[in-house]
Amino acid sequence: MRVVLQRVSEASVTIEKQVKSSIKKGFLILIGIEAEDTPEDIDWLCRKIVNMRIFGDEDDKMNLSLQDINGEALIISQFTLHASVKKGNRPSFIKAAKPNIAIPLYEAFIKEFEKQLQKPVGTGSFGADMKVSLVNDGPVTINLDSKNKE
Fold first, then answer.
1. What is the C-alpha to C-alpha distance for residues 81 and 108, in angstroms, rounded to an integer?
2. Could you give phi then psi for residue 126, rounded to 5 degrees?
């Protein structure tokens, strides 16, 4: 499971010209799922993200977590995080999980994230053509891969 985590001052996702979800200060989480992903990957990533200390404290040092600031989260599925461009110029997405595998894992990720954050999160719609808007705060962008925990 791969995640691109962006610290944002605001973010939203629009589908068919309708805003589906929007947040203020918090995380925009883009998540790519592959067939080998498991509930352990979900648990590790959710715990890591909820507790990641990348928000400024009173001295403006990255010392506070999403929970510490009572921040929000917007979780968007993005199979293109598993793009391979080793051959040619057209990306291959062969490592990305097919919908029958990815959808239940995406939904489980959302449920576990809400449980650990202790509040609801915003989401996109799996497989939809989404327009994602954000104001990256910092900018701060962090890549996480549950297959590369060390």
1. 19
2. -55, 130
Question: What is the Cα–Cα distance from 67 to 41, expressed in whole angstroms?
Answer: 21
| Confidence bin at 94 (pLDDT 50/70/90) | confident
Question: Residue ranges of the domains in the chain?
Answer: 2-145
CB 5 within 8 A of CB 76: no
For the entire predicted model, the pTM comes to 0.94
φ, ψ at 113 (rounded to 5°): -65, -45
Contact 99, 127 (CB under 8 A): yes
The whole-angstrom separation of Cα 6 and Cα 90 is 26
CATH fold group of domain 2-145: D-tyrosyl-trna(Tyr) Deacylase; Chain: A; (3.50.80)
pLDDT of residue 86: 86
pLDDT, tens only, 36-88: 999 999 999 999 999 999 999 999 999 999 999 999 999 999 999 998 888 88
Active site residue ranges: 80
**Strand 72-77 relative to strand 26-32: parallel, antiparallel, unpaired?**
parallel
Alpha helix positions (H), 52-141: 99-117
